[in-house]
Amino acid sequence: MSEYDALRDDLSAEQQALADVLVTAPADSWRLPTHAEGWLVRDQVFHLWHYDDLAALSITDEDAFIAIRDPAFADPVAYERGHLQQAAEMGPAQLYDSWVAGRARLRQALASVDARTRIAWFGPPMSARSFATARLMETWAHGTDVREALGLPPSASPRLRHVAHIGVITRGWSFQLRELAVPPIEPRVELAGPDGQRWAWGPEDSPESVTGPALDFVLLVTQRVHRDDTALVTTGEGASHWLDVAQAFAGVPGPGRPPKAESNRRSEHV
């Protein structure tokens, strides 16, 4: 099995892990609010279905994808507002079945191209390998929002290595997104995977480093946790600054999560 085959299998497994949660969730839980302001559980699932479908379309018919993408760029707020309206018009069963069908189309599309094939997207074109990894990250991150709303912990498996990898390679992007200078020293990143595996990136002799649990790292780079609520440890000013701005996904700079202590104080005054 090639590395690309294994990656596609990991994407399918992460999607199935979320499906296993959704298929047993009561219908009324699809209307629970998630941390994303204004988004319910159903909106998170619609988002995954819509972009899985667009991903498959970009692979199979790039011109058709671009015809959808370009107007979305013109008015992204209206584009997302339309998603929320469509999600509200669909029942849980219809939305779940649509997402399952979209996942299948995406898997078939990814299997039809070489790992190095360049695929158009909302940012710069990506290789199919990077494209599949990004879809896995999206599935895990939005799945984490769904699980949180249902009172469940995040999915934690060796598949998190893919999400951590995106978090590492987007270090420069996180600074550029905020029009900040990228620190010149590349830090060593050493993470403990869910099963005790050691995952590492960067120069072994770097004077700067980031260490700690892989789950904390991926929660941070997908902005699902505040840095103060992780066990991550940094050495060096540049590495520390990175964790303050880390953002592994495209789009405008995200606000991130407030510390739990601050969230609790807000709740006490509601």
Please describe what this structure looks like.
With 270 residues, the protein is α+β, with helices and mostly antiparallel strands. Residues 264-270 have low confidence and may be disordered. A four-stranded mixed beta sheet has the order 4-3-5-6. A two-stranded antiparallel ribbon has the order 1-2. The termini are far apart. Helix content is 57%, strand content 8%. Helix 2 (41-60) packs across helix 3 (62-74) and helix 2 (41-60) crosses helix 4. It has helices at 3-24, 41-60, 62-74, 76-88, 92-111, 128-149, 160-169, 171-177, 214-221, 237-245, 260-268, and strands at 118-119, 126-127, 188-192, 198-201, 209-213, 233-235. It has two domains: 3-127, Up-down Bundle (Four Helix Bundle (Hemerythrin (Met), subunit A)), CATH 1.20.120; 161-245, Nonspecific Lipid-transfer Protein, Chain A (2-Layer Sandwich), CATH 3.30.1050. It is built from eleven helices and six strands.
Give the helices and strands, then pairings.
Elements (H helix, E strand, L loop, with lengths): L2 H22 L16 H20 L1 H13 L1 H13 L3 H20 L6 E2 L6 E2 H22 L10 H10 L1 H7 L10 E5 L5 E4 L7 E5 H8 L11 E3 L1 H9 L14 H9 L2
Parallel strand pairs: 3-5
Antiparallel strand pairs: 1-2, 3-4, 5-6
Helix pairs in contact: 1-5, 1-6, 2-3, 2-4, 2-5, 2-6, 6-7, 7-9
